[in-house]
Design brief:
The protein is an alpha+beta fold. It has 10 helices and 18 strands. The strands form 6 sheets. A 6-stranded antiparallel β-barrel has the order 10-13-12-11-14-15. A 3-stranded antiparallel beta sheet has the order 1-4-3. Strands 5-6-7 form a 3-stranded antiparallel beta sheet. The radius of gyration is 25 Å and the shape is elongated.
């Protein structure tokens, strides 16, 4: 639902200072209190992630619906907005099937382009553009990465904890090998910060120094000189992972005895355990993305009310704006905060 560690450093966009209005008025503590008042008991798990104590995401939706019913709020479904125009002091909303509705104020909270199968096809950007708002380039974020498949395809389904690095950014966490590339929370988090980087590296022995790894490798060779390379990493790494790593740096055939490893090969092996590189070929599609990177330029909105500076009575909230967060509840926090500011301002 949120993350107790959420601060401005967990967010990205052309102007992250825009978040300060939300941070100062309705942030993590206020969000948890708000939902507890509605009936959601929460719990905090690893790395600050906050969940409903019931472990049911549907409970969050349910308590919001219950409160709407108490307040006699009218919910209209089956009204997919095709256009919004302002005529005088009111807005005219027209649906794709020709229905019309009117409002004094409108909040565009239509999500981004991520997960279009759930309905977020980017329509909010089109509606804001019609009012003169600028939209940045849009990219999938919190999404799996495509890499060269020679190595990863053979490791499909294997998970490990590693330090993942892309450019100057690093993240520790779980990594999953897939038939197209790399997935997992650590990879997701880095996609929100990556630019046009072409390489990713894994430190799969993050709790050992290069010198310590060399000592371990030399000791294993000394203790089991007649062991075949194909079994060299048994008890140290996943067997298939170790074999793939050896092949990726050209140490073959795996039927060789480990004692035949020369100094150059040992050095390459140690260095790869600390920095195993993969070529980035791109990201998976919008269908796989959890969030949109980019959106409506925030300079054109008030950070304390979410109201448009171009059109009075028009507001925006959530993913449609050029703010996106790391993996771990941060994007939900931005949704609650920006939604609260827009709603209370209206």
């Amino acid at each position: 639902m949120t993350n107790i560690n959420a601060d401005i450093n967990n967010y990205h966009g052309n102007n992250t200072k825009f978040l300060l209005g939300a941070i100062n008025k309705f942030w993590v503590e206020e969000t948890i209190a708000f939902f507890e008042n509605l009936g959601i008991l929460t719990k905090t798990e690893e790395r600050g992630k906050v969940y409903p104590y019931s472990d049911q995401a549907s409970a969050v939706l349910d308590v919001l619906r219950f409160r709407l019913e108490e307040l006699n709020v009218r919910i209209v479904t089956g009204f997919e907005v095709e256009s919004v125009k302002k005529n005088g002091n009111r807005f005219e909303l027209v649906s794709y099937n020709g229905k019309t509705s009117y409002a004094e104020k409108v909040i565009i909270a239509a999500g981004g382009r991520a997960a279009p199968n759930l309905g977020s096809k980017g329509k909010g950007y089109e509606l804001l553009k019609c009012f003169g708002h600028k939209i940045t380039d849009l990219k999938p974020s919190l999404v799996q990465l495509k890499t060269d498949t020679d190595v990863v395809k053979k490791l499909k389904g294997i998970k490990l904890n590693a330090i993942v690095s892309i450019g100057s950014q690093s993240e520790y966490g779980e990594v999953l090998f897939t038939d197209y590339g790399l997935s997992g929370p650590a990879v997701f988090s880095l996609t929100s910060r990556m630019k046009n980087d072409k390489k990713l590296s894994l430190d799969i022995m993050y709790n050992y120094t290069l010198h310590q790894i060399r000592d371990i490798i030399n000791a294993r060779i000394c203790n089991n000189p007649k062991m075949r390379l194909e079994n060299f990493f048994v008890g140290m790494l996943n067997k298939k992972l170790g074999q793939a790593l050896l092949k990726s740096i050209g140490i073959e055939p795996l039927s060789r005895y480990v004692v035949t490893l020369n100094e150059h090969e040992i050095s390459m092996l140690c260095e790869t355990l600390k920095k195993w590189e993969f070529n980035i070929k791109g990201t998976m599609s919008w269908n796989n993305a959890q969030v949109t990177k980019g959106g409506a330029v925030t300079d054109e909105f008030s950070p304390s009310t979410m109201e448009s500076r171009l059109v009075k009575g028009l507001y925006a909230a959530g993913e449609v704006l050029d703010i996106d967060g790391d993996c771990g509840g941060y994007n939900l926090q931005w949704a609650w905060s920006s939604g609260y500011l827009a709603g209370s301002s209206v």
